[in-house]
Batch of 4 targets.
Target 1
Amino acid sequence: MTNAETAAATRSVTTPALPCFEKQKLFSIGLRCGRLANRLIIFANFVALAEEQGHRLINFTFHTYSELFEGTHENIYCRYPRPRRRSWLDVVPGVAAAFRKTRILYHLTRYTCLLNERFPILGDAAVTLRELPGRHGTLLDEPEYQEKIRPARIVFVYGWRLRSPGLMKKHGDKIRAYFRPIQKFETASRNAIDPLRRAADVVIGVHIRHGDYRGWKGGKYFFPAARYAGWMRELAEQFPGRKIAFFVCSDEPRSADEFPGLTVGFGTDSPVSDVYALARCDYILGPKSTFSQWASFYGEKPLLHVHGIGEPAKLEDFRVSYLDWD
């Protein structure tokens, strides 16, 4: 894909001018939100805020996945910025693994978040952040939020729909470096896409989510494989004279027979290498999902979320995600 195509597909995101506080703050995320992509997204948004304002961040809710990423696999506190020296908890064999398995640090943080909200014995020095009521989502640069955290030294985060897309775009390179997968998954993602690159001019990633989507929101975003094949043909027709290949990843086994007449490669045996393989594609298509949102952000590749079975797949509707709300 050319630079012009990428620029045309990228959403315009305004970077907010946030205040620089006199005192560095410690942010601590205390609410686990869903699975891999959800936790990456909430973590990344606060990494962006910490980078912008010079704060520190710890996130015990990420322990389930911490060993899979360069920034966290030897970082028991899941701290940002990464510590210059490893904690003794990481150095002593078995200790870090035990803490991750028991989730004791997460549970302590979670209950501290809630207790601080109900019994603020530290006054303004420690605050608990939630989404603003009555909103679809809350921007971290909103004046109300910035004013609330101004006097605090410790900020507990107990919410999910908290975003800062402008800062995600501004500090994207540092965020991507922190969440680079460990070599095992980096290699698997590359091996999934390289053969398709050799066979085609354009590689389009397709995320088929079935499993839990059969029942989620009454099956609103559950689409049969035949409909995905239809969207894939629609996209191929928009690249006249060019060879198109598709990388298909799914939470259920898929077969080439479901995509007749199309050049198709299939996902790996891991959600981590799948999402980073999607990030290596030129375009990404799928149902509404944070999984494909993360792939779009990480790879800076245009994404189209299809919201209905009758919705067409048009190239002009693809946009790079900066992890705001779909």
Note: The chain has a mean pLDDT of 91.
Target 2
Amino acid sequence: MSVRRPTAVGVHIFAGGFSLGVREAGFEVACHLETSAYGVSTAEANLGIPAFWPEGKWPLNDLAGEVDLVYANPPCAIFSNMGISHDRGPGSQAWRDDPRTNCWWDVFRVAEALRPRVVLLESVTQAYVTGRPLGDELTRRALALGYSVTHLSVSSER
């Protein structure tokens, strides 16, 4: 008897490192959804999965109801110590005006369309500090969609 592997779709995964871990966890990665060509050819060559870009080519209707996990790695430079918010000083909310912030909202547009069992976002610690208002808004939106929310911080420091 064959057991169906759970299906996953990556959003803003770029070259595909996150997808390797998702595969190792037992998921079948159906595709990546990207808004630019950055990393697409690398992911396709190394992972053998399709990557769709720009957003207008995302096959959301075809994937709806078929996906167990949407996982994402939206751009972190808007929050990181080397990014735009840092450059503008402590307490800066420059990330609000950075177009890369839209990538975070893309994840929820995909979740709304696909309604996976689980949505997973990964980023730098500063996303939870500098970008806390965004994290709080995304949490409210996830709760409104009927998801439970867990925030987890993992440090590799010893």
Note: The beta strands are 7-11, 28-33, 51-52, 69-72, 118-121.
Target 3
Amino acid sequence: MNILLISTEAEPFAKTGGLGDVIGSLPRELNKQGADARVMLPLYQGIRQQYQSQMEFMGEFHLMLSWRTQYCGIFRLESDGVVFYFLDNEQYFGRDAYYGYYDDGERFAYYSKAALEALPFLDFSPDILHCSEWQTAMVPVYLKTLFREDQRLSRLRMVFTIHNIEYQGKFDGSILQDLLGLAEGDRGILEYDGAINYMKGAIVTCDRLTTVSSSYAEEITDPFYGRGLENIIKENRYKLTGILNG
């Protein structure tokens, strides 16, 4: 089984908390069990400064993010037996921090779409894409909308993991076409409680939904813990599984 973990953090390259721990260690364990698990990350400024001399350049392309034309470079590096791919765009990732910018919605919509468009350039053909948290939540949304007619991607299956449902990626409804480049008919996938909600879109469009423990899988169906998404979680409970970190 070929698995590509698309993330915004993974040790030893980028980490702010548990997400970086999981994505840094999970592929190694999957590989021990006979899978071929690899990781995709943004080429953040700090990673570039420390590791770029060790990387192999794999190719480049330009993608459309609605009306914007954006560059994407692809680099490859093997670390501790795991292959990592890095997507390069200095406008979005050449910054001091990973998150917390006014254009985070645009940055990670770009990353999600670029991750899919980069797949034909890789020396690897995944069966499963695994994404985590709101920053990569647009990957399954794009896979089921803009890329649904792409035969090269039709065999892919999508796992989405919620580590912390409090951060959902909520943005003004006007970004649907102007930023995300989606049709008005796709608004229902993402819109919830008067906003575009990236995590809601991933919950609806992924093939399997996981959380970081079986207890958390139960908790997020409760209004207190679900942070407004509990009803969407309940509607998609048939594909929800709690898998304990570690």
Note: The radius of gyration is 17 Å.
Target 4
Amino acid sequence: RAVAMVKAGDADAVVSAGNTGAVVAAATLKLRTLEGVDRPAIAAVMPTCGNPLVLVDAGANLDCGPRMLQQFAIMGSVYSSAILGPENPVVGLLSIGGEDIKGNETTKETFSLLQDSPLNFRGNVEGHDLFEGETDVAVCDGFVGNVVLKTGESTAHAFAHWMKQEFKKNWIRLLGCTLLRGALLSMKARLDPEMYGGAPLLGVNGVCIITHGSSSRRAIYHAIRVAAESVHHHVNEEIVSQIGKLSSTS
């Protein structure tokens, strides 16, 4: 019903903490894709040492061709610029090596497409590059993206668990923990995915934000905020414009 309201023009955006597959299916079938977009993609925002990273696709499409990955790069770049701040987002193609000859046939062909595009393309990036803060948008298929996303989330949870175990070993460490409380709370806030407002489904003809099923009220608040910002900054219109420019020059 929420998607139908967007389709009818009774709402500007839909925010859902429901089943991700169901949300993607409903939005794709009812709203359809934007002009020039083959398939929509989930963009997950992840914290880094610098600006937040947009990982796209994070799970909507398991098998992607070079043209789709090129479109993901454009959509991720538009979203990063409009919502997260960088004027000319740095785009990287997730691969198994930094050299342009590394990767499979799909990534090699995608590399050529991105290199010839007007995007600020830095080339291939590896897993250890993602959190250094030098890349604003990381492009990959949904299979790889979903593995990266969930691995990052589980690593953060494990790190927090290890820290608690170490601090509880004796009273001196507990005292140190008390003295570090401010810094630890700041770090926790920086690593909190709820601050980034969920994952937008980019490429559908309407604003759609997907949040985690266990989202708190704060996560829902930020998801609504990001949805409103996406409407205000005309993210979809900019995606259509950028993909249109690319098609006219190719």
Note: The longest helix spans residues 142-167.
